[in-house]
Every structure is written in C-alpha cells, then in structure tokens.
Amino acid sequence: MVDDILAPYENRRSPLALSEIAERRAGLLFGWQLNRLQGATPNATDGRLVDLYASGRISRQEYVSLVVKIASVEQSAKALA
User: Fold this and answer.
1) Does residue 49 contact residue 63 with C-beta atoms inside 8 Å?
2) According to the model, what pLDDT value does residue 81 have?
3) pTM value?
4) DSSP run (H or E) holding 58
5) CB atoms within 10 A of CB 67
C-alpha cells in the first residue's frame, strides 16, 4: 500500500541542482542522527520519504501530508489484522 502512495512521487523529476540536494541530505542526516541518539529507529518508508524531500520531488507540505496518509493506512491495516 505504501508503494502505491509513494510511486507517483518517486517518478517525479527533481527540480533541484545537485548542490541543493547534497545540502538537504546533509541537514536531514544530521536530524536522523539526533533522532537515532534519542532512540528512534527509522524504517524503509522513512528513508523513501526523506529521499523524496531531499531530492526536491516533494515539498514540506507534501511530506507532512504523506506521513499522515501513510500512518493512517498503516493504522487501519493493523486494526484489521
């Protein structure tokens, strides 16, 4: 289900220059390291979302919207199990 949600965004072209992508990735990596030190364990979906944002294929608003949508779908799937 997550694949169906993310596929259209993953097929987008990146509008950012390589330097901008590298800068975004560095900032996100720093945040991930801080979260890891606090006990967070990222999963594959987290990585895909971060890659989409870092590459400029989604905006901040789309990132938040996708997180909410995926969480809702995963929660519904757990409730049905």
Assistant:
1) yes
2) 73
3) 0.86
4) none
5) 13
